Amino acid sequence: MKSDTFRLGEVFSYESLVHAVSGAMGSVTAMTVFYPLDTARLRLQVDEKRKSRSTPAILAEIVKEEGLLAPYRGWILVIYSLCCSNFVYFYCFHSLKASWRRGQQSSPSSDLVIGIVAGVVNVLITTPLWVVNTRLKLQGSRFRSADIRPTNYSGILDAFVQIIRDEGVGALWNGTFPSLLLVLNPAVQFMIYEGLKRHLSSELHQELTSLEVFVIGAIAKTIATIVTYPLQTIQSILRFGQYNESLGKSKLMSSVRTVKCLLVNRVKKYGMLGLFKGLEAKLLQTVLTAALMFLFYEKIASTTFKVMGLSNKYQRKR
Questions:
Q1: Rg, Å, the chain Cα set
Q2: Residues in contact with 257: Cβ distance below 8 Å, sequence separation at least 6, in sequence order
Q3: Cβ neighbours of residue 44 closer than 8 Å, sequence gap 6 or more
């Protein structure tokens, strides 16, 4: 009973809450700075007939056609979704890490497993937010593809109601299968980040500088993004809910076959490079955002622990 209480104390702990809040605040701040890059990436993934160009050219094109604020369309919902998503992920990651490690030194394999479990929990809880997020962010956009159906949502609640009414409750979890596969992205990212941080800390025998945190965060996210980007493209298409028309009977297929069909269809149309359309914008956005997020996260968490007089304990557990 004492052991169970100890484990519960590790899962529902003040330290896990600090990590969760710090991660959420860091991600929101970073995404706000680099949000237009995410707009360019999503437009290239979903609008198949829009030609791949440099990120500045895509953004200039969007502003010219849709107005100055178009690159920030859907920002509020993205921030809300990102805040919830990162809170859940960081809380799960650090609470599971504290509970499973039980005083032992962390390893890349344990970080990877814990990251995958935290990612699965996060996907199952927050996917409906991201589906609505994608729909609202692309509403009002001018697409090159003529077969994309226009939507008319008045807000978040109306989007939920219309999706459930017209497509069923299950539509809120569109793209869940590739999302579950994509838990490898943050898992690999955290594995590399935590590993590099442990290595540098032991080599330098001191707390990492802001620049060092920024660089290792960027390296970790770059590797994770390149490895998983084709699935991210399929995830965006499924969340947007436009795949039924282009693939006919794909709605009747299993999730695995649907993802396979979308991947094969894209390769047939545009070649292997079609799977990486928008990668430049994605790398710019996600790498810079992740690096800045880790920087803010580390600073917020470290400062909070110091203010609460837990800095020594915090450093030992890291």
A1: 20
A2: 250
A3: 50, 52, 58, 277, 278, 281
pLDDT digits (tens, 9 = 90+) for 208-224: 888 888 999 899 989 88
| pLDDT at residue number 22 | 92
d(CA 309, CA 311): 6
- pLDDT tens per residue, range 278-310: 787 778 878 888 888 888 998 898 888 887 765
Distance CA 107, CA 110 (A): 5
Q: How far is CA 252 from CA 180, 243, 256, 261, in A?
A: 20, 12, 11, 12
Tokens at 298, concatenated: 């580390």
Which of 146-155, 229-238, 287-296 is least confident? Answer: 146-155
Mean pLDDT for the stretch of residues 256-274 = 79
In angstroms, rounded to a whole number, what is the distance separating the alpha carbons of residues 180 and 188? 14
Q: In Å, how far are 171, 178, 253, 272, 309 from 256, measured between CA atoms? A: 16, 9, 8, 20, 50
Residue 309, φ and ψ in degrees, nearest 5: 75, 25
**Measured between alpha carbons, how far is residue 255 from residues 180, 224, 250 in Å?**
11, 23, 9
CA dihedral 45, 51, 52, 54 (to 10 degrees): -120
CA–CA distance, 44 with 29 (Å, rounded to integer): 24
For range 58-76, the mean pLDDT? 86
Phi, psi of 278 (to 5 degrees): 90, 5
Place of tokens 């359309």: 277
pLDDT at 147: 63
Cα distance between residue 277 and residue 4, in whole Å: 49
